[in-house]
Amino acid sequence: xxxxxxxxxxxxxxxxxxxxxxxxxxxxxxxxxxxxxxxxxxxxxxxxxxxxxxxxxxxxxxxxxxxxxxxxxxxxxxxxxxxxxxxxxxxxxxxxxxxxxxxxxxxxxxxxxxxxxxxxxxxxxxxxxxxxxxxxxxxxxxxxxxxxxxxxxxxxxxxxxxxxxxxxxxxxxxxxxxxxxxxxxxxxxxxxxxxxxxxxxxxxxxxxxxxxxxxxxxxxxxxxxxxxxxxxxxxxxxxxxxxxxxxxxxxxxxxxxxxxxxxxxxxxxxxxxxxxxxxxxxxxxxxxxxxxxxxxxxxxxxxxxxxxxxxxxxxxxxxxxxxxxxxxxxxxxxxxx
Amino acid sequence: xxxxxxxxxxxxxxxxxxxxxxxxxxxxxxxxxxxxxxxxxxxxxxxxxxxxxxxxxxxxxxxxxxxxxxxxxxxxxxxxxxxxxxxxxxxxxxxxxxxxxxxxxxxxxxxxxxxxxxxxxxxxxxxxxxxxxxxxxxxxxxxxxxxxxxxxxxxxxxxxxxxxxxxxxxxxxxxxxxxxxxxxxxxxxxxxxxxxxxxxxxxxxxxxxxxxxxxxxxxxxxxxxxxxxxxxxxxxxxxxxxxxxxxxxxxxxxxxxxxxxxxxxxxxxxxxxxxxxxxxxxxxxxxxxxxxxxxxxxxxxxxxxxxxxxxxxxxxxxxxxxxxxxxxxxxx
Lengths: 337, 332
What we know:
The complex is a heterodimer.
Chain A: E1 7-18, E2 21-32, E3 36-40, H1 47-54, E4 62-70, E5 73-74, H2 80-86, E6 91-94, H3 98-101, H4 108-120, H5 124-137, H6 143-146, H7 156-169, E7 174-178, H8 186-203, E8 206-211, H9 214-220, E9 223-228, E10 231-237, H10 238-243, H11 248-256, E11 305-306, E12 312-313, H12 321-336
Parallel strand pairs in A: 3-8, 3-9, 6-7, 7-8
Antiparallel strand pairs in A: 1-2, 1-4, 4-5, 9-10, 10-12, 11-12
Chain B: E1 5-17, E2 24-37, E3 42-46, H1 53-60, E4 68-73, E5 76-77, H2 84-90, E6 93-96, H3 100-103, H4 110-120, H5 126-139, H6 156-168, E7 174-178, H7 186-203, E8 206-211, H8 214-220, E9 223-228, E10 231-237, H9 238-243, H10 248-255, H11 295-299, E11 305-308, E12 311-313, H12 321-331
Parallel strand pairs in B: 3-8, 3-9, 6-7, 7-8
Antiparallel strand pairs in B: 1-2, 1-4, 4-5, 9-10, 10-12, 11-12
Keywords (chain B): Amino-acid transport, ATP-binding, Nucleotide-binding, Plasmid, Transport
Membrane topology (chain B): Peripheral membrane protein
Subcellular location (chain B): Cell inner membrane
């Protein structure tokens, strides 16, 4: 994330307000070329809204402020024509429910061709050949026989593959996948995650993977951003967050996941519920549910600060801060000797 | 100890039409399922969509009629659905579904709804009803001041707690939970799973826990049955089945669960999709996706056989004919 590697997408102080209620509070986030970034958090934390706002896909009643730059070009407040050049062409997005994203009265082949015509100007035989190739790439068996079928004739997993094929039609630099596997069965989810990994390796596109499933995120992402109540609370590499979560909320999310191996223990739930965005608590939004909170947490909101190990963290009383600091200081000394 | 609920060779067939004028084609949603749940025990039922797990849950409660087979509750056959005897028995067996908003009446306060079973089954006298409702709300972790709230004023987790409180009102012996935490966020899911576990321990309720989420089932079930296309393909204690799955489908299902922090390498990824129940493959229904499939799998349906103490599997390869022939020979 250095200046030598210019970011593909740069979000700065992105704010979203719905009918006077602020739901996204100043998001700063970079996506580098070719990287896979995970965005996790519970419903209502703003992980989807961040990207819908960035791509200008929110309804008119949403007020979006801040800066969204794609390769240095400002998108926030840009004209529709400028946005449409980016959307689908540079950045494609797929959603949780593929069957509602596909047009039920057009054959899937025509829908992929439509995307190819808009984004790459392909027509006729060339478009058809490319559409068939894309169907093959995403793993639709016997594409030429299924080209003229309609979305209802495909299963949920195959519809998601078709959505991915349409997203790939514009040869995007970034694919934003919003809960792409949540509605799918376990064995199909594994197939789609595998497909996303393969595609990224082959095309070199960047991926933003929005999910509440930390397990799925760890399968496809290199960097993870944890959001709570419209703010980023912790961000780091998968290894950093998964081996040593510092924010009590991140820690809590990991502890709440039932384990599939090991012994059957009582689950460690996070008490309480996500706050209503209309009545956010004073100070740190997580403080009323936080086991480590002190009085000050309820008064002053901790800013998102870059830590020694490169991660970003918004917490005044992070998990195992002291122990970690010592360990970190000890290791370089050992290396020096 | 006798099982609280037993099912023998249950079959449920739906008729679907192919096209507008097409003939009816039968879909065997549940195809010869037998199981038993002991008092206080939790049986987990896992499988993908279309495996028949929800239909099975409804059949256990007598909501969906069986085409063949029988359900027995405390040793006696289940009365026909809709009869007075069946309604009386329903107080002893309750259902919790995935979507609490659909299960609750939007125009009634949750206290009224939690109290409804007490009124319907005439369980508690009117003057004691409020106290019992308060007790139930406390048991599932709802605050007393939430009694007068309407469903839309509660969060998803709180609504599911209200549904559970209502299911517990008639002091049931059996709770069938169909994806009860699937719509909830991880942190809330853990809260509700803990509530269910606590209530079960305190009251000795038997539970049939239907879910596609293996992690949750692992945490709550004593025994697990894996379903594929209307049949049980493997059944064993929860500890055993997750540690050493035998049926190739169970192995794939467990392998497909992404574990945080574990890289995807070495995972077993199944090819293909679960088949359409209306177009069932010949032989073992799993053979088109099975990495171990042999010729026999394409032609003959494997029976559910014992493969160890308290565990069964239906697979020619891991629990094949030869194994059972040898056992029969020994017995002879």
